[in-house]
Amino acid sequence: MGTVHAKSRPSEAFGEVGTELLGLEDPIDFEDEPVSKPSIQLNGVRARVDRVHVDGLSRTKDDIVRSAVDDLFHATDFEDVILRAHKVRKALDAMGCFREIGVYIDVSSGPGATPEGLEVTFNVKELSRIVGGINTTVSENEGNLVIGVKMPNVAGRGERVQAEYSLGHRSTSNFSVTTAKPFPRSQLTPVVSASVYQQNHEYPWSGYRLLDRGLLLDLAFNTSPSTKHSIQWEGLVRETSVLSKTTSFKVRESSGPQMKSVLRHIVSIDHRDEAVFPTRGGWLQFSSALAGLGGGVAHVRTELQAEANGTLPYADNVVLQGTCAAGVLHDVFGTELADRFFLGGPATLRGFAQRGVGPRADGLALGGTMYWATGVHVYAPLPFVSSRGGLADLFRSHLFLNAGCLAHPEEGESVVSALSEVRVAGGCGVALRLGRVARVELNYCVPLRAATADCAAPGLQLGVAAHFL
User: What is the DSSP letter of 27?
Assistant: First the structure.
């Protein structure tokens, strides 16, 4: 958040509030030795906001800014002013119109001011008309270089158009053009977007290549600060091809062009204090997809993922984490290999190769129509590092125990029997934070239980992902 600055007359009434209010990272230097003063409860200091200024607007329309700052006028005390100012700043930042937002609270009693009246000023700097960038993303243990061009705030109300091209180290490439329109004044703050894309992925563990070209329509909205929904419709043409002449016939059966139409709903609830190394709170995501509203594929696919975190009673820097996931795919007609679930690898079931669990043919993973997986993890600061802060905060030591099963029950086979072939692996390692969205794990893994056809991977295993099971 931006720094909140306050200006006040040198008086006992507001002098102490001015320093506690700001929450400045660096202490203020005084020539004289500071005198100890009693603290003042900010929620006991009556205050209200009389005027709000937003300086620096150019393309952005006044109406959407006015709707964001109106909440400040309902403040009743100093603490409330601070909290609402930060809330307004987050709302302005979420519009995607500004690159800098500064907040200034004036407590001086100028002409026309009342004893309790405040002026709040937001100094903003709008984004350039065209913004380019290069960054990296992670998908299925693969790093991707992303080159993008974005036109933010096209019509002055947060609209944006962006184009991205990404290239992975395994001959993966993606291209997309997306346009989005937010509605910040609506109650659920919905965002409507449309994307045209082409995705080219290789899956050597299963012996096939996918080339998808399609259109994705998305409606995203929030029903609470921690609950997010996304309703999508996707229409695509998929071309599946094999990677070699020796590819299994069961993989070759899925080759060829295919048209698909999917209606999808994703809901996620996130109460964690952070995403990469959470210390408390839980996260849950449920997705359901219905294919068959046009095209040559019809199925129902549902998946659930959950995570819970908490510190140990007598060691607040040691975090115990529990994770679980499950999925079911019901085929009506036309469902091929690429629509199935896969399990195994450093981001899912550690101790097994990528897609190393479940049915196989000639050494290639065929996937399954149902799975479950769970894990117990312990994260702690690195041993032999006594001080906190700096580079040490990017690392965690890691103990884990994973279990799961992937199955593709044949006709007449019991589902309970198919899902009872449990695979188990444990181990320890080190995790490294990559920004606030991903991490790297280097673990020494010991498979404890595996099926005959599985591809176990004992020893060191390196994984990079935004979400680990």
Answer: P
